[in-house]
């Protein structure tokens, strides 16, 4: 579990990132979860955009993605979800204690 201080740090880091995935009408599927898990291993911190035509609520989408990819939900801002997962091989962030 991330602490408040760690989430603040990650939100600041994520500010400049562009979303690299979009969840649309099809919602969340296993293939998307696998791709997101791979992207998290490579980058640790990613943004996902929830499109207007997505049938599910963005909080449900965020929950499904974070559980499926075994990642931490950093924040939901507007229609953008920020996920973090510590990488085994490509460590990029030293989180504050």
Automatic annotation (TrEMBL):
<dbReference type="InterPro" id="IPR001890">
    <property type="entry name" value="RNA-binding_CRM"/>
</dbReference>
<dbReference type="Pfam" id="PF01985">
    <property type="entry name" value="CRS1_YhbY"/>
</dbReference>
<dbReference type="GO" id="GO:0003723">
    <property type="term" value="F:RNA binding"/>
</dbReference>
<protein>
    <submittedName>
        <fullName>RNA-binding protein</fullName>
    </submittedName>
</protein>
<dbReference type="InterPro" id="IPR051925">
    <property type="entry name" value="RNA-binding_domain"/>
</dbReference>
<dbReference type="InterPro" id="IPR035920">
    <property type="entry name" value="YhbY-like_sf"/>
</dbReference>
<feature type="domain" description="CRM">
    <location>
        <begin position="1"/>
        <end position="96"/>
    </location>
</feature>
<dbReference type="InterPro" id="IPR017924">
    <property type="entry name" value="RNA-binding_YhbY"/>
</dbReference>
<keyword id="KW-0694">RNA-binding</keyword>
């Amino acid at each position: 579990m991330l602490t408040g201080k760690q989430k603040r740090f990650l939100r600041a880091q994520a500010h400049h990132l562009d979303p690299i995935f979009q969840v649309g009408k099809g919602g969340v599927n296993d293939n998307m979860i696998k791709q997101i898990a791979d992207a998290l291993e490579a980058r640790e911190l990613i943004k996902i955009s929830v499109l207007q035509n997505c049938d599910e609520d963005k909080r449900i989408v965020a929950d499904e993605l974070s559980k499926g990819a075994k990642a931490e939900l950093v924040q939901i801002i507007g229609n953008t979800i920020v996920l973090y997962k510590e990488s085994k091989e490509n460590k990029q962030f030293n989180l504050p204690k």
